[in-house]
């Protein structure tokens, strides 16, 4: 297996209905969270959109659990990507309205991305695995 160097913005895929909901969410927090709003809207704009049934199993979507490595620190993380109201970092649920959450959406296992953290430093995040579960009610 060859290791690919991260590109700033690798190709991503998103579920069309999720992209619509996320665009509305990003616009609703534009004044309160301008950086995350802009990052998320940019990702939605450049994503290839598909119906849910056509998204490959290894693509990060809402409510997927993603295992990734921060290449700078070597630290391994596993989080479920959630909407803000369901986020609870202590329970392994990260909001789409965090810089990392916005950077993970649409990536596939094996891909890496250079992405800003909360302090504006670029981090290389590499997706190791993606699993899917049903959204919490």
Summed up, what is this model?
With about 140 residues, the protein is of the alpha/beta class. The chain has helices at about 15-30, 35-45, 100-105; strands at about 15, 50, 65-70, 75-80, 95, 110-115, 120-130.
Total beta strands:
7
Strand content: 25-35%
* Uncertain runs: 1-5
Radius of gyration, in angstroms, nearest whole number: 14 Å
Q: Give the SSE order as H and E letters.
A: EHHEEEEHEE
Largest sheet, described in full? 5 strands, mixed
What value does the average pLDDT take? 89
Structural class: alpha/beta
- Tally the helices: 3
Strand order of the largest sheet: 5-4-3-7-6
N- to C-terminal separation? 39 Å
* Helix percentage range: 10-25%
Shape, per Cα inertia axes: globular
Task: Note down, in words, how this protein is organized.
It is a single chain. A 5-stranded mixed β-sheet has the order 5-4-3-7-6. It has a two-stranded parallel ribbon with strand order 1-2. About 25% of the residues lie in helices and about 30% in strands. It starts with 12 loop residues before the first strand and ends in a 5-residue tail after the last strand. The chain is globular and about 35 Å long. Mean pLDDT is about 90; it is low at about 1-5. About 30% of the residues are buried. The protein is of the alpha/beta class.
List the helices and strands and how they pair.
Blueprint: E1 13-15, H1 16-28, H2 34-46, E2 48-50, E3 64-70, E4 75-82, E5 93-95, H3 99-104, E6 112-116, E7 122-132
Parallel strand pairs: 1-2, 4-5
Antiparallel strand pairs: 3-4, 3-7, 6-7
Helix pairs in contact: 1-2
